[in-house]
Amino acid sequence: METSLRYGVDSKSLLIHAKEKFPLNSLTHLQGHAELDTRIGAPTYLSGMIRRYFPDQYASLAVGVQYYRRQKLWYNIRGKKAFPVTADERSLHFHIKGKYDVDEKLLEKKSRVAAEFTWNIMNVKKDQDVRLKVGYEVIEKVPYFQIRENNWTLNVNNSGKWKVRYDL
Asked: Going by fewer Cβ within 10 Å, which terminus of the chain is more open, N or C?
């Protein structure tokens, strides 16, 4: 299980996030997420999805359901496609990703599309890996940036929003 502590500009408390992947076969897994708000002592987010990987195309596709404490139940589909930019396939990638959500009554819909460059820098120093990500959220027209160093991640966008995550 992957767990992390998260805090952001619009948070009023520390969040504990957990993610687990249950393999269904070599290319497909069931993925569950949960988030606990430490201020109220209750879950604020639950998610379950089936994700399929297509390694020959550097792509993945997922369908699932999400529950938010305030927004209730949402169904979603998401996809991601990577294009290696450098000969070292692990180093620099260009990603296109999208997500489409619809509420439980099939009335409200939300879309998200982003394009981003991701640069993985392994062994900057001994046992120190860094990932830099620069992207653009197409529908909201917001550029964003991420820097990740081993267990720490900082996300910032041009709207003044930020989040910090520490992986346990």
From this structure: N
Residues forming beta bridges with residue 20, ordered by sequence position = 32
CATH of the domain at 11: 2.40.160.40
d(CA 46, CA 64): 11
Residue 69: CA count within 13 A, CB half-sphere? 10
Q: What is the CA radius of gyration of the chain?
A: 17
Question: Buried (b) or exposed (e) across 85-124, using 16+ Cβ within 10 A?
Answer: eeeeeeebbebebbeebeeeeeeeeeeeebebebeeeeee
Identity at 31, one-letter amino acid code? Q
Q: Which domain holds residue 27?
A: 2-167
| Number of structural domains in the chain | 1
In angstroms, the CA 35 to CA 18 distance is 6
**pTM above threshold 0.85:** yes
Instruction: Tell me how many degrees the CA angle 74-79-84 measures, rounded to the nearest 5.
Output: 155
